[in-house]
Each structure stands twice: as C-alpha cells, then as structure tokens.
Amino acid sequence: MFLRSAVMSLAVLIASQGVKADDEVSAVDAKRAEYFYVGLDYSPAFSKIRDFSIKDSNEKSRALYPYLDNGDVIKLESNRFDWHALNPRIRFQDNMLIAMEGSVGYGVGNARVEIEVGYERFKIRGTGSRLNREDSEADAIYLLAKELAYDIATMQPDRLASALAEVSGKDIANFAKTIEVLYPGIDKKVCVTKKSEQEGYGEYYYITQTEESGKTVYNNHVSLCGGRGGNGQGGNEPQHLQHFVRWALEDGIRNWPTSTSENWTVVTYQPLPNDNAEAVAKDLINELTSEEKVIVSGLLAKTIEGVGVVEIRSLSSTSVTVNVCSDISVSNAVVPYICVGPGLSFIGVVDGHTIAKFAYRLKAGLSYKLSKEVTAFTGGFYHHVVGDGVYEDLPLRHLADDISLAEHAKDTAIASFDMSYVGGEFGVRLAF
C-alpha cells in the first residue's frame, strides 16, 4: 500500500506539471543520441523470506530454541534459553531505513544498460511474546539442540531410549552426578528401586541376583534401573539415580545400556537389550514435572551432547545486477520505463560471513525530466535470489557452561531459505 500510494501521488504530480514542461529542453534532449549517467535512489523493501531453517552441519541438531531475554546481560548458558519454545518460526522485518542503490549506465535513444549496486538489510523479528516490543540483541540468539533434549521436549521415550543407548556409560555417569549435586529432587525421581515380593527394596549392585529353582538368594541385588531384586532381604528405603550410577554402573564401566544377571542355569530374570537406557528414558519423561524436564534438557545439552549457538541478527543482500532498460516515450515530460537484469547477491546470514548467489531483478516506473541533465524517477522492483537456497559453513558459538566431551572445533551450521523482496525506488539520474 505504501509503495502504490507513493507511486500514484508522484505520477499525479508529474502529470500536472508535464504540460508546463519547457519545450526547448525536450527538443535539445531529443537530439542527444547517446549519453552516460549515474543514479542514486532510496529503495525501501518488503521482506519475502520464506521457509527459514537452520541446523548444524553434521545434521545432528533436532531442535531450535530462542534466547530467554530477561533484560539482563546476555550469557550463553543453558538455562538462559527458552526450552518451552520449541522450533519457533524465524521471521524478518521489512527494510525501511538502510536501503540505498546506485547505478552507472549508458543510454542510446530509448534503450539503456546499467550496472546497479544495491543494499538491503532485513533485521530478525522477535519470537512469541517478544513480537510487540522493541528490538533486542537477544532476538538474534538461538540454540541448536540435539537428539536427547529434543526427545524429552517432545516426550518420545522410545527415541530417547535409542539415543541414550548410544551414549557411553561414562557420559551417563557424568550427567547423573551433575543432577545429584545441583538438583537432588530430580535425582530422587529417577531409577527408584521397587520393593521385592518378600521384604525390602532392591539394592543396586553390579549384577542382578535372582532366585534359582531350589536355591535361595539372601539379598535383593539389582543392576536394572528401577528394578526389583530377588527373594532376599533388601533395604528399608528405595535407592535412586545416584546409587544406580555408583553401584550398578560403577561410574560408567558396567551395565550400560543393558543390565546383567547372575549366570545360573535357570533364572527368573533375563536382561533385555538396552533395558537400562529404556528405564532411564521412561523415568525422565514420565516421572518429572514440566519444569524438571526443561532442567534435564539443558543438562543433557551441556554434559553429554554439546550444542551450538547461532546469532542471526539479520539477513543482508548486497546485489550487483546488469539491467537492460527501455524508456517508453508517451509525453515530453513523463517517460515510463521497464528493466530486467541478472546478477549476483552477496547474502549475509551471520555477521561477517557472506555467500554469493545468482539473482535477478525486475523493475518498472516513471521518469520525469527536471532539466537537460537531471531526471527524477519513481518505481517498484522485485528481486529474487535463485539457486538451492542453502547457505553452508556458518560459524557457531558454544555455551559457556558446556562441560561435555563433544568435539566442537569444526562445528558449523547450514541455513536454508528462499529469499526475495519487493520494494520501491525513489531517486535521480544525472546524465553527462
């Protein structure tokens, strides 16, 4: 609406003044067979960026989380991201301020060829509750979480169990010890042993001891997370995650992801593949509150998987096109024009990192001769970046509290989106 209103207003003004145009200027201009010119214009643009997505280059990231802006100093720590806002839609603002274009060209009669250089910058919008407030540096920061955190957020115990089964016992032990120290309430909800049929609770041990036909077991030793022992005497209180890690996993060297049992001829208990991974996964999803799951997601990210942080302040396009234009003579003062041109757009996704892509531009408008050398023009344009829409090798940052053993040295991200924009141009050309 803004572009259409501006064009119509200027067209009416030009038409009203065209009758008064100096015939001598028009006659002199008609005799000029060829000329060079330079142009400068203001070119506000409306963003048409669609289907924006971003992931790490090794394609292990499964979810995107925005930074949780509380007005404090920005810190790249796991608890400073909004773990409730899974995969927010990333959108970009229109560009009304930093929008300039310049051109140099050569004209013969009604035909022109020009090289045009333009710059557009589309700042990122806030997400969710941040949409209707002033821009913040926090709007640009997103965390790329991997499988474990994603599976908890989406409550998929089977997927979580499969992912946990691929994690080393040492990493599981490290994760559990962090929970024990920082969140003892969560520790007491995971891998809680059950009471045996005789008496007492199961007690964690490096092996599960069960009853054999004709033989009595005198304890409730269990190596299964949340398991029940044999027919012997157990503890008076249930054990939980810290005991499971310390005595069943022996700090990660045994029983992960599958428990073990006594190697007797006939037993009433046989371990199932990945049974400990499955039991831990079910407890993390079924036994914890929503807030506790958020805490666990952050802990998994910083103690086991490692995560990447990407800053997307804006998408910028520095375009260079070669336009072929035609001026359509309809009066002595007002001249419609149309242009089409291929070229390149240098797209900036992350600050300091640009990627060249092929592009093309279409534009049309009205020119008005102010003097023999000076022409004012107004019009509209459409700019589209062609190709696969994939932007690789974008740099990633990492959490300040990341204590995982994951290798980060070569971590980069891949963004994918379709980029085009439409806008207006309001400027002057100086012929010589």
UniProtKB/TrEMBL annotation:
Keywords for the protein's UniProt record, in alphabetical order: Signal
Domain (Msp4/OMP-like) ranges: 33-151, 274-432
Signal peptide: 1-21
UniProt-listed SUPFAM superfamilies: OMPA-like (SSF56925)
Superkingdom as given in the UniProt entry: Bacteria
Protein name, entry field: Surface antigen family protein
